[in-house]
Amino acid sequence: MWLAACGGSSGGRANINVWVFNEPSGSFKNAAKRCTQQSDGKYKISLNALSNQADQQRQSLVRRLAAKDSSIDIAGMDVVWTAEFAAAGWIKEWPTDIANQVKQGTLPGPLTTATYNGKLYAAPANSNTQLLWYRKDKVDKPADTWSGLIDQAKQLKTHIEIQGAQYEGVVVWFNSLVQSAGGTIVKGDQVTLGSGGQKAADIISELAHSSAADPSLASQHEDENRLAFEAGTAFFQINYPFIYPSAKDSAPKIFKQIAWAPYPGINAGEPAKAPIGGINWGVGAYTKHPQEAFEAAACMRNSENEKEAAIKGGLPPTLESLYSDPELKKAYPFADLIKKQLANAAVRPVTPAYADVSLAIAKAVSPPSSIKTDGFVNALRGTLKDALDSQALL
Amino acid sequence: MSATSVAEAPARSGRAPKSETDRSKAERKLAWMLCAPAVIVMVAVTAYPIVYAFYLSLLRADLRFPDDRTWNGLNNYGTVLSSSLWWSDVWHTVIITVISVAIELVLGMLLAITMHRALFGRGLVRTAALIPYGIVTVVAAFAWRFAWSSAVGGFVPKALGFSYDPLDPTHPFWNYFVVIATEVWKTTPFMALLLLAGLTLVPEELHEAARVDGASAWQRFWRITVPLMKPAILVALLFRTLDAFRIFDSVFIISNGPNPKLETVSILGYNQLLNRLNLGLGSAVSVLIFLMVAVIAFLFVKGFGTSLAQQRGEK
Asked: How far apart are CA B193 and CA B184, in angstroms?
C-alpha cells in the first residue's frame, strides 16, 4: 500500500495504481501479478482495495477524482458510473487503436455499459446478472413470473431472498421490473417513467406485504440473502452467481441442492429483462502514465485473467469466447443462461446524474413495505426531474 | 473571543477621548498587534469557510457538472425548505436532542451531587465518572453498535431474548433508544462536570440556615441549589444542546448505512456534499444548520441574560 504514496515511476518502470473492490478469491491480485510480468518491465501494477459496497467504492473514488488525484491510474468502476465519470472528466476516453482491441470479441451488453455518447470510456472487466436460485429438493419447478413465485413461496412457507435495503441493489431490482414491464426510467435528460413504474412498485409492495418476504427485507443486501439461503431458511433467492462458489465452500449440503432458473418476468411466457452489473476498468484523467494505464487495464481483462475471475471468483466474463470454454462451463454450469440474459439485459439509466437518480429511486422503493403505491409514478417523476437538474435533496 | 476584546478596547477609550495619551495609544496599538495572529487565524479558519459556504449555497455547484456552475439565487434554499426530507430530518434531530439532553441533565445533576458530596475517594469517583467522556465518540458508538446489533453478534439482543435485530432500520424505536443511550452515556460526565462547577458556587451557610429553619432536603434543593445554579445549568444546557443538534458520528455508525428514519440534518448535509458532490445544495443545508444553531444559542443566551437580571433584581 505504501507504494501508492510514491505514485511515480521507479527506475523507468511506471507504477500503475489500480483501485478496485477487494475481490475475495484473489483473482485480481493474480491478474495484476501476471500483467506486471508480461509487461517486460514497462509497468508494475499495485492493487489498492476499496470497500466491498458499491456506494462506498464510488465515494472513495469520486472524492479523489474530484480533487484531481493523480494516483488513480485505473479505477474499477461499477457499470453504472461510466456516464457520470466521463461527463465530469474524471476518466479518459480510450484511444481508437486500443479501444478497437477492447471491443474485439466483447459481448454487446457489457460494451454498452462502458460507452458514453458513442465513445468508449472503459474496458469491460467482468459482467454480472442475477438468476433465480432455488432448492431442487424443495421446489419442483419454480414459477416464471413474480406473482407466481410469490404464491409459490407462500404455499411452501418460505422466503424469496432479494435485496430490499435502501441502496443500489433495490434500484437494480426496480429497474429490471420496470424494463420487464416494457418501460424505462430515464432517457438522456428526460424522465420516461410510466405505467411500468407503477407495475414495478406494485410487485415490490406485493412481495413486501406477503409472507414470502424475509422479515428483514428492508435491510438486506446480496450477502444477507446468500447467508439466509445457505442457512437453509429460504428456498428462493434472486442473486448474482457468486453465491454458487460460495455455497460450495460454506454450505456443501445446500450446494448439492442448488438449481437455477431465469430471472422472473412480469407476464407468463415473456422473458424478463434481467439486471446487468459488473466492473469496468476506467483510466483516471489525472494519471501520469496514461499509455501504460491503458495497456495495463486491457491486460487485466484479457482472456486468461477473465477466466480465472470467473472460475475462482464467480464473476461472469465479458469476452464471448469464454462462454464456450469447457473448463469454464464445468465450474459455471449456468454459463449459457447468463450469456442469454446478458444479451437482453436491463441496462440502468445512462446519465451523468445516475447517482442522484439511483438515490431517488432507492428512497422511493425502500423500505419496500412502506412504498406508497397510490400516485407512485407522479411522485417519483417529480424527484427524478429534480435529480437530473441537481435540484433534489436526497 | 479575541474579537470581542478588540471591539471593546476602542469603545472604552472612545468614551473618554481626553484621557487618550501617547501611552494609551501605544497600548492600543500593542493590543491590536497582540490580537492580530488570533484574529487572522480566526478569519482564516472560521470566517472564510462560513462566507465561502454561504457563497456556494447561492450557486448550482455540482462537482460532477463542472461546466454548469451557474448563479442560482435562493433556489437551493427553496429546494431544501420545501423538501419533506429536510423537515423529517429536522424532526429526528430535535427528538434526539431534546430527549438526550433532558436525560443528561437529570443524570448529570445526580452525578454532580454525588461527586460534590462524596466524602472519601473523591478523586476516584470523579475520574471514574469522566471515563466515558474521554472515549472517542466513534469508538463509543462502535462499542454500542457491537453490543446491540444482532447482525454482528451483539450480546444485548441475545440477553433480552429479541427475535429481531434492534438496530435494523425497521425498528426505529430501538434505533433511537441506542443512539440516545450512546449520547447519554458519553456526554453525561461533561454535563456533570459543568454542573459540579455550579454546585461549588452555592454557599454552604445558606443550606445550614435553611436546615435550622426546618427546610427538607428536597426544599433546599429546589429553593436554594437550583436558583443559585441557574447560570451553570443554562451554560451546560446550551453547550449540550448545540452539540446534540449537530449530532453526526454516533448516528452515522449506529445506522451503518442509510436509515431514513434515523437520518439527522448533519447526515443530510454530509450526503449532499460528500456523496453527491452537490456543493450548492450541501452548503445550503450547512448554512441552515448554522442558522438553527445560532437561533438556539440566541434563545439560550437570552434566557441566561434574563435569569441573571432576575437574580440581581431579587437581591
From this structure: 14
Same domain, B13 and B156: no
State the total domains in chain B: 2
Domains of chain A: 9-127+278-342 (3.40.190.10), 131-275+353-388 (3.40.190.10)
Q: What is the mean pLDDT of each run of 10 residues along chain A (394 residues)?
A: 44 88 90 94 94 85 92 95 93 95 93 94 95 94 94 95 92 96 92 94 96 90 92 94 88 94 92 94 96 95 93 89 91 91 92 90 91 92 89 82
Tens of pLDDT along A73-121?
Answer: 999 999 999 999 999 999 999 999 999 999 999 999 999 999 999 999 9
Axis crossing angle, helix A290-300 with helix A96-103, rounded to the nearest 10: 10
Q: Does B62 reside within a domain?
A: no
Q: Does B70 touch chain A (CB under 8 A)?
A: no
Residue from the list A63, A386, A394 with its beta carbon closest to the beta carbon of B271: A394
**Which ranges in B118-163 belong to alpha helices (H)?**
122-134, 137-148, 155-159
- At A200-223, the pLDDT tens digits run 999 999 999 999 999 889 888 998
Note down the domain range covering B108.
75-311
Same domain, B42 and B84: no
- A368: nearest CA partner in chain B: B170
Same domain, B33 and B81: no
Chain-chain contact of A390 with B268 (C-beta, under 8 angstroms): no
In a domain, B232, yes or no: yes
Give this prediction's pTM: 0.80
**A51: nearest Cα among B279, B257, B276:** B257
Give the count of alpha carbons within 13 A of A288, CB side only.
15
